[in-house]
Amino acid sequence: MLRTLMVVSRGVNQGGLDYYHKLLDALLEKNITPFVTLFHWDLPQTLQDEYEGFLDRQIIQNFKDYADLCFKEFGGKVKHWITINQLYTVPTRGYAIGTDAPGRCSPMVDTKHRCYGGNSSTEAYIVAHNQLLAHATSYIYHVFNSAKKGKIGPVMITRWFLPYDESDPASIEAAERMNQFFHGWYIYFKYYQQCINTYCMYV
After folding, report:
1. Whole domain around residue 197: which residue ranges?
2. What 8-state DSSP symbol labels residue 80?
3. Are residues 169 and 142 in the same domain?
4. What is the helix, strand, coil percentage profile of the chain, to 5?
5. pTM here?
């Protein structure tokens, strides 16, 4: 992640910007094409402390401002952007089972007493939704407002689920349900609401 300051309205770390300009220049001099990830699980601690990060909708505007700054600063050197890495993993591991940062989950899930709070049945969905909105606002700016051409998108971990018993209709339906839930939630934005409404009741 470009470690400037995600809350752009509070000021920008010019030293951080200078560092990444030099880094990008060095890569380009070696004919190395930079692929830049804006967020890979390293949210500034201040945003987690102030409003629980992606659990609050304030993150959407803060992320957009941060992404806009990066596009303006580095868009002449970077043509491949990743908005958020591992869309599925952050809400599930960070807010449902609490094994990864920020370590939130329900008490009944927290068998090792490592979560400092949370609600596993709701927070993962809220975080996922806010991640998608943060990505979307950044994407819209990049596509419609940036004069510097490039490619942009999130990164999704992928899995594929197979029926336990290919002769059992219930097993086949369960595998399809899991595939639709896992991929449709994030990848098929067109079917996002349909996916959530149809499949959330089962998981």
Report:
1. 159-203
2. E
3. no
4. 50, 10, 40
5. 0.87
